[in-house]
Amino acid sequence: MPDINEDTLVEQGAIPPTDFHDKIERIREISDYDLEWQPDFLERLEKATDGLLFPEDTLRAVAAALRAGHVILQGPPGTGKSSLARALCDAFQASVFPVTAHEDWTVFDVIGRLELRLHSDRKEEIVPVNGYFTESAIKCANTIVKHFDDPSEPQAEWLLIDELNRANMDRAFGELFTVLGSDAATPITLPHQRDGNRNLVVPRRFRIVATLNSFDRQFVNNLSQAIRRRFTFITVNIPDRKPEGVLWSSSSEPAPLAVQEFRLVVRRAAIRTAKRTNIGEDSNEQQLADTYRERLLGSFGPLVVSLFDLVERVRYAGPEQRIPHLPIGTAQIIDTLELFMLRLLQDGASDEAAAGLLDWAVSVKLVPLFDTDVVAPEVLQEFATTLVAPFNKATRRELLGIVAAGTHFVE
After folding, report:
1. Both 21 and 92 in a single domain?
2. CA-CA-CA-CA torsion for 331, 333, 339, 341, nearest 10 degrees?
3. Same domain flag for 229 and 365
4. What is the secondary structure of 183-231 as a DSSP string?
5. Is 182 exposed, middle or buried, given 0-12, 13-18 or 19+ CB atoms closer than 10 A?
6. pLDDT tens digits for 35-91?
7. Contact by Cβ (8 Å): 115, 127
8. Cβ burial 242-256 (10 Å sphere, 16+ → b, else e)
9. Are 32 and 204 in contact (CB under 8 A)?
């Protein structure tokens, strides 16, 4: 009996191909395999999200939503939505195909198009180019087959879309409405592909995980009800307010989420500062990070506490208060502390000058967030006049500058 190699078995349909790009219609052969649920999934989820600030209930909710279908993580900027999305993919043993949405997206960017290519020999050729959705679905099929051969490989590849509402979803994803809204093996026709390679059946293991900025309403598009029905929306919010009487520097365990955020911000700011200042052969990045962390918790501790007190005032301001409400994300606080430390080290400033430099860092990192159409000018002005040291100079001046510009608020 003659030997039959793998290519022959693939061509005969006995086994699926390892690359479906030229055999798109054969994805149907492996499309019905659903996600594998690992018995140790919750342990994997805990490990993947270690160091992230999310309530356990949020993690379990989004995990259940991903088992059911496509998910959108919505919330203010800087709350860790993208980090959570990637961590969830790790927990589900899925690799990611990351893209960032754009207002110019059309069906050609999402499904595919024909492009004219010029080769090195000056010959022109029209070639099919897959859009983001098509390419990620094909890669997912390839990944599924690799997982069959080696269970340690990812079980799927998912499309990760950042800033989903930057795109006009109805214009870009309109042709996918039927597929996204059904569990049936409904094929998508790919007009840019050749005959015999045009009908794509999306694997059941495929997911879209998207992030959505729910606070900034400028330069974004609303999502229609048709699109919303095809996703599960999970809110990723700022941490809950610190309980009354608990200190930011509390060492109690288990710590409230707000205190965990305080610790994480200090640690991340110290690590990032160390990375940027770790120069010279004798430098030790970890030792630098430990030194900077000790300074932020020690001599600069009261300044860091004043920063968190300021953020807390605006994060949780209610309608009855004359304080602007802004859900400032964890990322922005880390950025502010990092900038403060870098300026301090660069200038060789004394500890006595630190208050002024933190005031400056807040004025250039956090104050621009108040230049938004959701804050009334009279409230912003009143808030600015109530600021006390160390934020009663540069921070106050920049806030009053926004009020004077008069372009941030529209009735």
Report:
1. yes
2. -120
3. no
4. SS-PPEE-TTSPTTS-EEPPPTT--EEEEEESS--TT--PPPHHHHTTS
5. exposed
6. 998 889 999 999 999 988 899 999 999 999 999 999 999 999 899 999 999 999 999
7. yes
8. beeeeebebeeeeeb
9. yes
Residues facing 212 on adjacent strands: 74
At 115, list the tokens.
């492009």
How does residue 411 score in pLDDT terms, banded at 50, 70 and 90? very low
Distance of CA 279 to the CA centre of its chain: 30
CA 268 to chain centroid, in Å, comes to 17
Q: Would you state the pLDDT for residue 280?
A: 64
Same domain (yes/no): 313, 392: yes
Residues 307 and 337 in one domain: yes
Which single residue is written with the structure tokens 């993947």? Answer: 48
Considering its fold, how many domains does the chain have in total?
2
Query: Token pair 């020999």 is at which residue?
Result: 121
Amino acid at residue number 290: D
User: What is the rounded CA–CA span in Å between residue 223 and residue 71?
Assistant: 14
The overall average pLDDT reported for the chain is 89
3-state secondary structure of 166: helix
Count other C-beta atoms under 10 Å from residue 8's C-beta.
Answer: 12
Q: Is the dihedral of CA 122, 124, 130, 131 positive or negative?
A: positive
We report the CATH number of the domain holding residue 198 as: 3.40.50.300
Residue 399 one-letter amino acid: L
Do residue 119 and residue 207 come from a single domain? Answer: yes
pTM of the model: 0.87
- Evaluate whether 361 touches 339 at the Cβ level (below 8 Å): yes
Neighbours of 69 (CB within 10 A): 16
Cα(401)–Cα(399) distance, rounded to whole angstroms?
A: 5
- The residue whose two tokens read 């395999």 is 33
Q: Please give the pLDDT value at position 409.
A: 45
Token pair recorded at residue 351: 């500890």
Average pLDDT over residues 315-325: 85
Q: Take residue 155 and report the two structure tokens written for it.
A: 């079980």
**Cα 212 vs. chain centroid, distance in angstroms?**
9
Tokens 């800087």, residue?
78
CB 17 within 8 A of CB 10: yes
- Two tokens at 64? 């259940």
